[in-house]
Amino acid sequence: MKDSEFLRTKVPMTKAEVRAVSIDKLQLKGKANLLDVGAGTGSVSIQAAIEFPNLQVTSIEKNPDAIEIMTRNMTQFHTDNISLITANAPQGIPDERFDAIFVGGSGSNLKEIIEECLSRLKSGGTLVLNFILIENAMAAYQVLANQDVDELEMTQVDVSKWHALGKGHYFKHHNPSIILSATKG
To answer: How many angstroms separate the CA atoms of 72 and 66, rounded?
Structure first.
């Protein structure tokens, strides 16, 4: 899905190319449910819900501005298979088991969120986390390296988009994103 399809505010949004890789790493084909922690504008939840209409998506977000724009995006895209929970993570993560979990935002609770997500993830389920800060990605990697996970992988997605400048063109650089993925053992 194009970024331009989403309603936007100052709330951060996972960009199209990063969403595509993250959703691919979630391995959602045939899965029943997805948890999106730190859902922001809802771009990952909404794209997953549209691409996999039988998937039940549970999104958790604490920021009132993000909740407002995500609600508007859910209405715009008619995504009836998304439940939005207003809460802090990890405390507000529902007491359910999930086939896949995406973490797009963690605030200062990264270790606790990862541990809670792993406790809620079904065996063989996938966990995908996105970061722009190397330090946060490395902290998450260290937590996961000491857990019962397989296929622990870190990928950097670096996107530049074509733009006109005067009579010429250049590639305008976006922030690189780090995608950390693992499968629960």
So the answer is: 10
Residue 36 near residue 22, CB atoms below 8 Å: no
36 — alpha (psi -120 to 50), left (phi > 0) or beta?
beta
Tokens 């999106």 sit on residue: 36
Q: Is the pTM of this model over 0.90?
A: yes
- Over the stretch 51-91, which tens digit does the pLDDT of each residue have? 999 999 999 999 999 999 999 999 999 999 999 999 999 99
Domains of the chain: 3-184 (3.40.50.150)
Dihedral sign for Cα 44, 47, 51, 56, please.
positive
Question: pLDDT digits over 89-104, tens only?
Answer: 999 999 999 999 999 9
